[in-house]
Amino acid sequence: MSSTRARPPVAAPVAQKGRGTVWRIQTRFDDLTRQEADDGWGGLEDDHQRIEDAALPATVIVEEQVRSILSRNNSPDVGFDLSINPYRGCEHGCIYCYARPTHSYLGLSPGLDFETHIVGKVNAAERLRQALSKPGYRPVALNIGSVTDAYQPAERQLRITRALIEVLAEFRHPFSIITKSAGILRDIDLLAPLAAQGLVAVYLSVTTLDPALARILEPRAASPHRRLEAMAALAQAGIPVGVSVSPVIPFLNEPDIERIVAAAATAGASTGFSIPLRLPWEVAPLFEQWLGSYFPERTSRVMARLRDMRGGKVNDARFGHRMRGEGIWAEMMRQRFAAACRRHGLKQQRMPLDDTHFQPTVASNKGQGAPGSTSQMALF
């Protein structure tokens, strides 16, 4: 048995086209740590060549019946109280994704399995309707897509996110969505009427304007120009839209902070926020291996700067620190982002939503209706 930190296999292959990683890194819950070693017979390099030559691993979609769909947030670092994640895992394959370690709870790898083994919560809408119908329920800040992208490719087939929006519309419950997919445009017919009542806000994540970098950083997400086009279409439809310039990776996409903000403002964004990269649990070795494969000349500088912003570590899970970082470099990035937002007229406050329209329709039919509050909720 060993508790040593997971390391990539000897001569680990570079991530293949369309995948963030091909490394099935072990989970932190594994008792045994395995490491490949060359025995001198010359077979290891041949094995890796076969891995690189193999067909791309196919995506497997598993349908799941869940007991509940609302997850409560206890962190003061994000401005929503409840979240809905229609899927487990995400086919976009973003190498930096902080949600990768959640696959460990399924006994699956946060590496390749996270982006190829997707679980769809097919009864999510039913469970949401039940939750919102409970006597005494009051609307609170709710976000869709905090640890998975609600508009990843599986949504085209399963349409779970659309069903959830239909339930939220039925109850007139305010909510926000964060995504890096142009697939959200499919649901403009639902979102636009809700936006007219102050019930929805959308945040598009734009990490880079460089399509070549996006292709390896976020291999199955929409290209940067498609995200900006989606932003413009949402804004034109009257749907309030913001930009998330997150995560910011030193020496990689960090030089483009100002250009991203400018492009988002031109596309119609009215607000913005930015979060420096954090590498919890298995994400750290995955990201470092990816970085060494694609940007070996920058690896040491990037990792050193990340530690400078995280108190000597690559992740700081403390409330009040994990979304901000600390030290001079983190502060400089915050100041640059704030200056860019001021220059282009973007607010850094989250878009307020109105909870006074809430209608517990199912509950009221049973004579158990609950009045909505009269406050405004600023999401995130």
TrEMBL record:
Annotated segments matching region Disordered: 350-380
Which species is listed as the source? Answer: Ideonella oryzae
Does this entry carry the keyword Iron-sulfur? yes
Name this protein carries in UniProt: PA0069 family radical SAM protein
| Highest taxon listed in the record's lineage | Bacteria
Query: What Pfam families does the annotation carry?
Result: Radical_SAM
- Residue span(s) of domain Radical SAM core: 74-313
Q: Which PROSITE patterns match?
A: RADICAL_SAM (PS51918)
Polar residues bias: start-end ranges: 358-380
Keywords for this entry?
Iron, Iron-sulfur, Metal-binding
InterPro entries in alphabetical order = Elp3/MiaA/NifB-like_rSAM (IPR006638), MJ0683-like (IPR040086), rSAM (IPR007197), rSAM_sf (IPR058240)
> Which SMART domains does the record match to this protein?
Elp3 (SM00729)
